[in-house]
Amino acid sequence: MKLRMCVILLVTCISNLLFGQKEVSDSVKMIKLEEVLVTANRLPILLKNNPGSVSIVTPEILSIMPKTAGAEEALRLIPGVRIDNQHDGERVHVSIRGQGILTERGLRGIGVLIDGIPVNDPSGFAPDLYDVDWGTVNKIEVLRGPSASLYGGGGAAGVLNITTNDGGPKPIGGELNQTIGSNGFKKSLIQIDGSRNVIDYRISYSRTDGDGYRDHQAFWGNKLYEKINFNPSKKLSITQIISHTDYFQQNPEGLNIGQFDNLRQANPDANPFNEYQKTNRTTIGFHGKYKFSDMQDVEITAYLRSWDYKETSNKDAEYRDITNPGTSVQYNLHLNSGKIKNDISIGVDLKWQNIDLYKLQSAANPLRKESLDETNIETDSLLANQIISQRSLGAFALYKLEIGKFNLIGSIRYDAMNNELTNKMLASDTAKTAKNFKNVSARAGASYSINEAVTMFLDWSHGFMPPSTEELSSNPVGYSGFNTHLVPATSNCSEIGIRGFYDEKLSYEITGFIMNTENDFFRFKQSGRGNQEVFYGNAGNSKRYGIETFVSYQILKNLSLQVAYTFADYKYVSSVIDPVYTDPAYVLTSPPAAGQWLPNSPKNQLYSEIVYSINKRFKLSLATEYQSKWAIYTDPKAYNGELDPAIYQNWQEGFNLFHARVSYSLNIGKINGECSIFIRNLTAAKYMAFTEPDPDGNAYHPGPAREFFGNIKIRF
């Protein structure tokens, strides 16, 4: 049925090609990258002068997303970034330069801002990207490398600065967008926008659902997003947003080698326990800027995020009621004298989070029929009932110097984070556990532009990654309280690079880096704590070096090529001696040994895409996606093949996939639009999408076979 609908869309496109009469301009206007302003540094700077590695996801790249339903689509051409789309929905795991690679989900140590509103909690953890409707995004800035001196624990690996579309030029306009595809995938998007006098606005709603390409993998999501830009004078500008997300996704879990025999199989526990995650979240926020004069201005951000979360497993059903407010203030001073420009900023970030959490024991239902529902059997056995309170303070100072073709930036930051857990199942004198962290981080970078085609840059930066809430609350020495043995991971990163732009045809950036991390993290298990109990420890130190390359080249007027390539060499260089993590009497999985590769980190990653404009209406794109083999486990026994080979296999072979897209621009009166067909994995290659170092051996997550997606977009 879905294939038939894709064929109908294709026929519609061909019909318009044959019988349409009006000429149309390109649906996406080209932008001059050298003129793009990067704002993720907290002091805006032109991309061409940025003293550090940075990537820009432009509207042209975003316009070729097939489903607009995942970060891996939007960030496909960003080197240094590894994205695991966990089970075909929007539950993703993202890492940059291997930082945060051991987290089961979300973004660990990666700062995320959506229209200036932070997503990370006080520990620097962003649980998901559900609030982003990728079909409404205008631009993404990706700072690669430690940015703790800018964003604290939320910048240990890098920053994603996501900007959504503003209102259109007309008083009232909008967009209708419909996508259908393989495995029951559907996404419907409606958007109303416009502008009048000093206000522009946009409100969008989308519904996404699908069956998934594996058993017990169905999902659905509703997203509502409202954005208003208010500019009452040249001195004052305010952006206000309201976001609401309701997302449900079944979890098929990983497989071990003995269980893996086809693409669709789920872990045997997934269906009878109806394992899933459910998120219902609302965010209200604003970002404002007031100019006192040409020399002084102040920026203020404030937000309140409130959400309910439920996750079921074969162990328990976990309920969380979360409140997460935050605010930041930044004062900017601009001192210019002739060709010398100085910018100085000071500011403070404040975040709070309160989590009311309880767990009920799960029970299986062997007679359960697979369906998209939220029913699961929970006993009256209360496994946990606790409150986690967190707060963080970050005070920072920034400096930028511009002298002709030379640019210098520097930053320093102090962070203090407090975590407290109250176990309501214990007496008051033993119920509380606290764990606090403090850190000072810095950054310095410089660039020099020889000409438009060649800019060289150097950068040195600190990373600071405190333990996340999940890592702290999994206590290996007791059934309650925090894991007080955990300490933050810290890193030092040096990089050198070159970027340039030539005649609006060529843009490129090549960056080499070396990063040393102390007290990296790992996962382990203990005897007597149950099959599902996974704990976190400090693994020792690691050393990472790599090369990140991006090239965009306009070969001909109607033919362009984009290539993103990453070379990564990530290894542990020392191991821990803390008996909490190494005592063989009760520790079942050991810390990694020196010389082991970091897990899920291919040595070579490549994404290449070529776009051919057959005429002003018809476009064809072809892409290839390649990853070399990677290591899976941190436990030395699993890593060295000393455990049951029917369950554990440390090295995972890589893959090479091919994708194709054909699109056609529509123009009917005052209505513009586009219809397209996308084929993912053209050759139907059988491959492993990603792995995780699961101590149970359930580490393997197969990827989908050939998939078809059809889209029609109408702009009015």
Index terms:
five-stranded mixed sheet; 55% strand; mainly beta; 716 residues; globular; 22-stranded antiparallel beta barrel; 6% helix; Maltoporin, Chain A; 7 helices
Report the structural category.
Answer: mainly beta
Counting DSSP E segments of at least 2 residues, the number of strands comes to 37
User: Strand portion, in percent?
Assistant: over 45%
- Per CATH, the superfamily is TonB-dependent receptor, beta-barrel domain
| Main pleated-sheet profile | 22 strands, antiparallel, barrel
Report Rg: 25 Å
- Helix percent reads under 10%
* Low-confidence regions: 1-29
Shape: globular
Total number of helices: 7
Q: How many separate domains?
A: 1
Calculate the terminal CA-CA distance, rounded to whole Å. Answer: 29 Å
CATH class designation: Mainly Beta
Give the name of the CATH architecture.
Beta Barrel
Q: What does this protein structure show overall?
A:
The structure is a single chain. The protein has seven helices and 37 strands. The protein is mainly β and 716 residues long. The chain has one domain: Maltoporin, Chain A, CATH 2.40.170. The protein has a 22-stranded antiparallel β-barrel. Strand 13 and strand 14 (199-210) form a beta hairpin. 48% of the residues are buried.
